[in-house]
Amino acid sequence: MKFKMLALATASLMAVAVPAAAQPGKPVYGDWGYNSAAMDQSVKPGDDFWAYVNGTWDKKTEIAADRASAGPFVTLSDQAEKDVRQIVEQLANDPNRDHLGQQIGDYYASYMDQAAIEAAGLAPLKPYLGEIDSAKSRAQLLSLFVKPGFASPVDVSIIPDFKNSERYTAIAGQATLGMPSREYYLDDSAKMKAHRAAYRDYIVTIEKLAGLPGGEAAADRIIALETALSKAQWPAAERRDIDKIYNPMTPAELSKLAPQFSWTSTLAEAGLGSAKSVIVTEPSAVAGAGKILASTPLSTWKEWLAFRFVSDHASYLPKAIDDARFGFYSKELSGVQQQRDRWKRGVSAVNGALGEGVGEIYVKTHYPAESERQMTELIDNLRAAYRDRITNNSWMDDATRKAAIEKLAAFEPRIGHPIKYIDYSSMKVVKGDPLGNAMRAGEFDWNLELSRFPKPVDRTLWGMYPQTINAYYNPLANQITFPAAILQPPFFDPNADAAANYGAIGAVIGHEMGHGFDDEGRKFDPKGNLRDWWSADAAKLYSQRTDKLVKQYDAFSPFPGVNLNGKLTLGENLGDLSGVEAAYAAYKMYTAKHGEPPAIDGLTGDQRFFIAYAQAWQGKDRENAERQQILTDPHSPDKYRVNGIVRNVDAWYKAFNVQPGDKLYLPPEQRVHIW
Q: Which fold has domain 123-317?
């Protein structure tokens, strides 16, 4: 089984070309935190607010050849890469580095030594492919499934128990296959047929380059195997139903569901022999995978494992293999035209293996204390705004309202970086062994998970690194987390107008807090336990409102014949909507205390608030990448994270004089208000 953490509700944000550093006391963007040159004032705000704010930027901006998208997220990620590059290259050449510095420096240097990788050829693969080749029974096959670094038709990991968030539990569910989702195997559209043909060519190429036997016939068998597995798997939207995916089973019950996996011995071999129960997230998919395990010849499973091992580790192998992977996964599936520079991928590799070690160094030089102080104030204001909106909403009964306020009060914000970092001292990094380093990093991660398994849940752990441009809410701990790297313009600028910061980072904070009350998060209590604290009437009224938002997003059609999936994106859309409304309410609290600000550039404070929100989602994607996002990602494309939200916010109508007849106009009774 492949070991993988389950993400219940995380938020990805996205991104603008960052100008040169601002003068002291001046915002990075314009006079108040926004680059007015991005705006297209020929567009009526009520017709397409995203284009009104970002239209000129959209027309002038080209997506970099090595990227699938452009915008503030990408630009900040590029800068974070440069910052981390400086750290790792210095450590790679520092004779006086400490042990962590040696690990980081040697991991990066080994990845970057392409001449040595070419000279080694296929030799580094031999021990791993030899393990696959030597499997003579299904028991030996199962042993490979539980080894970190090898593919499996079922994922197994360790997370806090949904209903007892103070203890860890094992969890099992459907695995990610060679293509992004089941639709890539089952959809009969011309685009998907073309992707499948390209995937077959890719498998054949990998087989040939890696010296694997079987050729085209093996490729056909591998695709047939993955197609069968995809038919048993659940669609992405169904996997968001927290009640459906919480199915705790004893090992004996799991063995009845899918006996082919020999769960008692398999769990023991994985280090989980003491597990009293396993949460099964997609029971029918696990049962289906078991049947396919039994009905598929051992030789085909070995072909699949060998192909997947080479493909999944292509970045550590000779250039021809690495380029082949890029050609399929980046160029074919996402439309990216050029392989990223080796150093950029090296930074990503080091972050993946030793990310908190890198982050500990990053924070010392790239995270000012003033950012933390202002963020704390913003979060306090957002919490007050949510409390006010929950207290005064018209549809909640008193008991449910009281429980919601208790959950809000228990929110734990984490800003910048962990209070303690992962100790990597036991991870062995060997200079000149990039593939071995990657495998040992995977083994270290799994052993770290196992070391925590018998102990109470450690609430200090982080799910992102400080150098990550993102933020997230963890419903199992009721925590909101904002890494240091995202606390930069255009999301947050200590020198910007308050309206800009409340509209940008304020809405991001509000988004993450809103996840605590979205369609998934609302089912968890203040301690992070899955528990129904809603009255039947309040739950019914909540669902009536969220159903309206689902229908609104179902109607958006980015491409002819392709609509958004309102059910799949509901949680993120709710986060966006509640985040904007709470951030606006917090901004009004700010102006009540400090006074209504004057107009700047002819724009009122309210207008600047909404413009800053739209600027934060100033992004564009390659068509294939956006199509993949629509099928697999719970986040809506950037344009709809703006237009689909503001049309539900009453204050936006007043700020921009939006009237009936404007394309985004919704009558008041059709607007969705949750909090």
A: Neutral endopeptidase; domain 2 (1.10.1380)
Second-level CATH architecture of 41-70+367-418+462-670? 3-Layer(aba) Sandwich (3.40)
* The two structure tokens encoding residue 153: 């038709």
CB atoms within 10 A of CB 148: 18
Is the distance from CB of 73 to CB of 13 less than 8 angstroms? Answer: yes
- Tokens, residue 579: 């985040």
CB atoms within 10 A of CB 393: 15
Give the pLDDT confidence of 629-655 residue by residue, as tens digits: 999 999 999 999 999 999 999 999 999
Q: How far apart are CA 484 and CA 529, in angstroms?
A: 28
Q: What is the pTM assigned to this prediction?
A: 0.93
pLDDT at 2: 34
**Which of 227, 225, 231 is CA-nearest to residue 288?**
231
Strands (E), 549-671: 620-621
Asked if 76 contacts 486 with a C-beta cutoff of 8 angstroms, the reply is: yes
Report the DSSP beta bridge partners of residue 278.
170, 249
Region of 33 (left: φ > 0; alpha: ψ -120 to 50; beta: rest) is left
- Which residue has tokens 């992707």? 195
Distances (CA, A) of 283 to 141, 245, 255, 288, 289: 21, 8, 12, 8, 10
Q: What is the 3-state secondary structure (H, E, C) of 345-414?
A: HHHHHHHHHHHHHHHHHHHHHHCCHHHHHHHHHHHHHHHHHHHHHHHHCCCCCHHHHHHHHHHHHHCEEE
23: DSSP letter: P
Please give the sequence-ordered ranges of beta strands (E in DSSP) within 348-436, or none if there are none: 412-416
469: its two tokens: 């441009």
Alpha-carbon gap, residue 306 to 328, rounded angstroms? 18
The rounded distance, in Å, linking the Cα atoms of 613 and 397 is 32
Residue 389: half-sphere exposure toward Cβ, Cα within 13 Å: 24
Amino acid letter, residue 223: I
**CB neighbours of residue 527 within 10 Å:** 14
What is the model's pLDDT at position 24? 53
Alpha carbon distance 154, 285 (integer Å)? 9
Q: Are 160 and 168 in contact (CB under 8 A)?
A: yes
CA 18/CA 9 separation, integer angstroms = 29
Q: How many helices (H) does the chain have, and how many strands (E)?
A: 28, 10
**3-class secondary structure, 425:** coil
pLDDT at 530: 97
* Segments making up each domain of the chain, as ranges: 41-70+367-418+462-670, 123-317
- Give which of 421, 418, 427 is closest to 447, Cα–Cα: 427
The number of CA neighbours under 13 Å toward the Cβ of 656 is 26
pLDDT digits (tens, 9 = 90+) for 175-189: 999 999 999 999 999
Cα–Cα dist 497/31, whole Å: 8
